């Protein structure tokens, strides 16, 4: 075919080359079509066999639905567990951020102080002792803010005013 193509391209027009190539290709359409049909039939037979094997190996739907409720996968329960996991991870990240900063750590500790020291007067004394012991100016301001809050709740205006002045004019 290549030899014919070379001979015709040198001596004939492109239309003649196209006509000869078409005639050569179309001279064997029946054999090509038979091969295509045979391949298609083989593929369909393989697919049918695979479908039969899958049907045979797959459990019946009613067998799946007959399982006890607690053995079925519960998507809502899974979603709740994922939400709890996300919240736990957020809490861990927040705790790590708080632990890496002195002021945030002091603030966290002051928020939990009422749980440890129930008496307001004792709480005020503990915070005053901490105020005298620390050298960090930010923590001192935080402790003064807490003392101001305690003084306002106990109607001690003079002490509250003193802490307010110390916050504004250090």
TrEMBL record:
Compositional bias (Basic and acidic residues) spans? 34-74
Instruction: From the UniProt entry, list the residue stretches annotated as the region Disordered.
Output: 30-74
**Which residue positions does the secretion signal occupy?**
1-32
UniProt keyword annotations, A-Z: Signal
Is Signal there in the keyword field?
Answer: yes
Name under which the protein is recorded: HEAT repeat domain-containing protein
Q: Which organism is it from?
A: Blastopirellula marina
């Amino acid at each position: 075919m290549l030899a014919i193509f070379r001979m015709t391209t040198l001596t004939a027009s492109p239309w003649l080359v196209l006509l000869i190539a078409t005639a050569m290709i179309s001279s064997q359409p029946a054999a090509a079509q038979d091969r295509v049909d045979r391949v298609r039939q083989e593929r369909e037979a393989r697919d049918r066999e695979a479908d039969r094997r899958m049907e045979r190996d797959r459990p019946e739907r009613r067998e799946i639905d007959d399982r006890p409720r607690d053995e079925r996968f519960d998507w809502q329960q899974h979603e709740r567990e994922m939400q709890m996991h996300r919240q736990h991870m957020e809490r861990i990240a927040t705790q790590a951020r708080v632990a890496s900063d002195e002021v945030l750590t002091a603030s966290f500790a002051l928020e939990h102080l009422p749980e440890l020291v129930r008496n307001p007067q004792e709480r005020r004394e503990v915070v005053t002792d901490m105020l005298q012991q620390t050298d960090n100016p930010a923590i001192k301001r935080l402790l003064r803010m807490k003392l101001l809050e305690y003084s306002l709740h106990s109607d001690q205006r003079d002490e509250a005013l003193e802490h307010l002045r110390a916050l504004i004019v250090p």
